[in-house]
Design a protein that fits this description.
5-stranded parallel β-sheet, globular, single chain, alpha/beta, 5 strands
Length: about 120
C-alpha cells in the first residue's frame, strides 16, 4: 500500500503548527519503511510561520521532516497578501500558485486530508 497525505495549515497559530509537525513526525515513525508521500501545505495567515523569526522555533522539526522527504508547499497568493518575500522562507519550500487549487489537486490524486 502507498500512503499519501497532505497536512494543511492555514492559521498563524504556533500550537496548531506544532501539532501538524508532530502529526508528520508520528506518521513518519509509524510508517517507517513503507511507501509514503507527505506534503505540508501552508496557506492563508499560516505562511507567516515559515518566514523570518517565527520559523526559527520550528527549525529543527522542519529540517527533520524535510530530510525525511516531506515536501512543503506554500500558497503564493498568501505570500503576496501577507507581504512575505520568498527569500525569507524556510529553505526548500515549494511555491504553488494557489493553495486551495493545490489542495484540490492533491485530494483528486488520492491524498488523505489532515487538518490539525
Amino acid at each position: 500500500m502507498r500512503y499519501k497525505a497532505v497536512i494543511h495549515i492555514d492559521l498563524e497559530d504556533d500550537l496548531i503548527f506544532n501539532l501538524g509537525l508532530n502529526n508528520i513526525s508520528n506518521t513518519l515513525d509509524a510508517l517507517s519503511g513503507k511507501e509514503l508521500e507527505l506534503i505540508l501545505l501552508v496557506t492563508g495567515p499560516g505562511v507567516a510561520l515559515l518566514a523570518g523569526d517565527q520559523m526559527y522555533m520550528f527549525m529543527e522539526k522542519l529540517r527533520q521532516i524535510t530530510a525525511a522527504g516531506v515536501r512543503i508547499q506554500i500558497c503564493e497568493r498568501a505570500l503576496t497578501l501577507f507581504d512575505i518575500q520568498k527569500e525569507d522562507l524556510f529553505e526548500g519550500c515549494e511555491i504553488i500558485p494557489a493553495g486551495v487549487v493545490g489542495l484540490i489537486e492533491l485530494q483528486a490524486d488520492g491524498f488523505a486530508y489532515i487538518k490539525p
